[in-house]
Structures are given as C-alpha cells and as structure tokens.
Design a protein that fits this description.
The protein is mostly helical and 154 residues long. Helix content is 76%, strand content 0%. The protein is built from four helices and no strands. α1 (8-21) packs across α2 (27-38) and α1 crosses α3.
Length: 154
C-alpha cells in the first residue's frame, strides 16, 4: 500500500475553508477543492471520515447525574425572577401606553376648552349684536308709524 498523497491536515484545512463559505459542507465539494488545489481528490472513506469528525458537534461537558436541592431551588428562583421581570416589563409598557394616551386626551381637552372659550365670546358678541339690531328695528318701526299713517289694505 502506498502512502496517501494528501495529509489529514490538508483535508481538514479544505473542510474548514468550505465551512467558512457556507453552513453546508459536502464530501463532493471537499474532494473537488482538493483536486483543484493538490491535483488529488483524496480517498473517499478518509475524506468522509474527516468530514464527519469536523462537522459533528462536540457533546457538552458531562453534567453530574445528581443535582442538589439547593441547585434546583436556585434554578427555580432564577426562573421565577425571570418571569417576574418579564411581567414587570409588560406592566411598565402597558402603563406607559396608558399614560401617553391620557396625556394626549388632556392636551385635546385643553385645546377644546380654549376653542370653547373663543366660541363662547363670539356667541356673546353675536347675541349683543342681535339684541341691538332688534332694538333698532323696533325704533325704526315706531318712527315709521309716527310719520306715515297706516294705510288700509284694499
């Protein structure tokens, strides 16, 4: 058996290069890159074995099979605190929206009150003008009746 043309390090470097380009690494792509770069495609079994080793996620560190009551109670307390914080954020956001809505209503009420004061003044002025016009009409009708006798209608 002859020695391989490509080292495991060269194949691993090709796998890492393809991983940096995208999330999916295939054996065909690795072998094509090796052929372009080194003129040899590498053994199928060896390329796929190294590819599986490079793309297999490393299992997390083993956690002890037992957990103490204090660990569980601490985790439960942390979970309750997180839930309470989320509720508080939602509560604060709700009250901020309600306060903003009330602030807008108060501003609108102030504008309406100012407009009502302007309209009330205008109505008072027009009422005075109307009363003055009525008084003038009555005065003119009396003057007209005293000057000209009433002519009966035929």
């Amino acid at each position: 058996m002859r020695p391989p043309l490509l080292t495991d390090d060269a194949i691993s470097a090709a796998i890492q290069e393809i991983q940096s380009l995208g999330p999916r690494v295939t054996g065909v792509a690795v072998r094509a890159l090796l052929a372009r770069r080194y003129g040899a495609r590498g053994g199928v079994t060896r390329v796929y074995r190294l590819l599986a080793r490079a793309t297999t996620p490393v299992p997390p560190a083993a956690t002890p099979a037992y957990r103490s009551a204090s660990d569980e109670s601490r985790e439960a307390a942390i979970a309750r605190a997180e839930v309470a914080e989320e509720r508080e954020r939602v509560h604060q956001a709700r009250w901020a929206r309600e306060m903003d809505a009330l602030r807008h209503k108060a501003e609108a009420t102030d504008r309406i009150q100012q407009e009502m004061a302007v309209h009330r003044t205008r109505v008072t002025e027009l009422t005075r003008a109307l009363a003055s016009a009525h008084a003038r009409i009555v005065e003119l009708e009396r003057a007209l009746q005293s000057v000209a006798p009433i002519i009966p209608h035929e």
